[in-house]
Design goal:
Rossmann fold, 187 residues, 37% helix
């Protein structure tokens, strides 16, 4: 079947979500799969609608998709939501049906309702008939010490305590593991 193609599609404003996407991609590649990074660009949103047909064509060729964006006011960033809405053509064509899906988000605090963002991504995956994979580790239940937030639905990241400009080291390590997990599940 060849090398699995894992698409990591995300929006990042400050760079934190981009950093997570990079660590996820490194995890994917560490187990022999191919990571393809796709960043949602604000300039591709015209009159409120995300428009990038070539991106959707590339995503359709992937074996798995990992969605990512920051959490703003308890929900996905508007730029990522525009991407979600624009995926409706793929929905009609069942282009993502039976693909593996997962999600990650970042926020300015440890609990800024980031789970709501992951739930929106989960609902998107379900709408498309995708198979959702969550995070299977917790610093409280295994010896890896990963996933300090305890989120099972997907990866949640926040700043390093005392330094609001940095993503917590544990979250970056968890992102690498998350990439490995999704690549292994994709087969």
């Amino acid at each position: 079947m060849g090398t699995k193609q894992i698409g990591v599609v995300f929006y990042s404003k400050t760079g934190a979500t981009r950093l997570l996407a990079q660590h996820i991609s490194e995890g994917i590649q560490s187990v022999g799969a191919n990571a393809q990074i796709f960043e949602i660009e604000s300039q591709s949103i015209i009159a409120g609608r995300y428009q990038n047909t070539p991106l959707f064509e590339q995503l359709t060729k992937c074996d798995a998709l990992i969605f990512g964006c920051p959490t703003y006011m308890g929900s996905p960033a508007a730029q990522f939501k525009a991407f979600m809405d624009a995926s409706s053509d793929c929905y009609v064509q069942k282009a993502w049906q039976n693909k593996l899906a997962a999600g990650f988000t970042s926020g300015g605090s440890q609990n800024g309702e980031q789970q709501q963002t992951l739930l929106a991504m989960f609902a998107l995956a379900c709408q498309h008939g995708m198979l959702w994979a969550g995070l299977d580790v917790s610093q409280f239940s295994d010896d890896l010490g990963l996933n300090r937030t305890g989120s099972s639905l997907g990866l949640v990241a926040s700043p390093e305590p005392g330094d609001p400009q940095l993503v917590a080291t544990n979250d970056l390590q968890t992102a690498f593991y998350f990439g490995q997990r999704i690549a292994k599940l994709a087969g």
